[in-house]
Amino acid sequence: MPEKNGDPGQSLAELSLSLDGVEQTARLGRGLGELCRPGDVLLLEGDLGAGKTTLAGAIARGLGVAGEYHVTSPSFALLHEYPGRLSFYHMDCYRLTGEGDIEAAGLAEYLEGRGVCVVEWPDRLGSLRPEESLEVRLEHAGREQRRATLQAHGASWRQRLGRLAAELAGGGGEGC
Length: 176
Ligand SMILES: Nc1ncnc2c1ncn2[C@@H]1O[C@H](COP(=O)(O)OP(=O)(O)OP(=O)(O)O)[C@@H](O)[C@H]1O
Ligand SMILES: [Mg+2]
Description:
Elements: E1 14-20, H1 22-35, E2 41-46, H2 52-62, E3 79-82, E4 88-92, H3 99-104, E5 116-120, E6 133-140, E7 145-153, H4 155-170
Parallel strand pairs: 2-5, 2-6, 4-5
Antiparallel strand pairs: 1-7, 3-4, 6-7
Helix pairs in contact: 1-2, 1-4
The protein binds adenosine-5'-triphosphate and magnesium ion.
């Protein structure tokens, strides 16, 4: 699955992964959720149907959000909040035109909250885009295949991305 691996203690700015089926996407999401800390922001980019909501659901599981909460796209509600090891805020900015809209909808404060904020369509954030974040770009690569490019912004995410790469390469767990 990983094409660029990191040593366990080494930080990594970018990681490229081939996700051959939903289970591999789920495994990536759970791994990300387990790494999350209070105040984290994860930006999920990609075309319609690329797998952003699927990944967000798996991040929720890694954060300890109970399985009874089905993570669905917050396209109309704009934001869904779930309780977990940390609060999980799932934001979908698709219908918003820019940062003015986001502030007017009261979403800006979640980007600075103590929970973990996962944002679909983060290009709408403009100047609200945080300096520290993990950016995940998903691309179609076949009916069940996706390509994920993870970019770490900030030292904390670079360190954790190195750990994640090592974990995924180690093959712990099922899937890939
Ligand atoms: N490897 C894969 N990873 C993620 N999703 C996959 C994969 N293979 C197939 N799929 C399917 O692709 C679809 C992805 O839908 P999803 O709602 O997660 O996309 P999205 O990026 O959130 O779309 P939108 O922009 O409309 O919000 C799901 O039906 C999922 O089952
Ligand atoms: Mg979605």
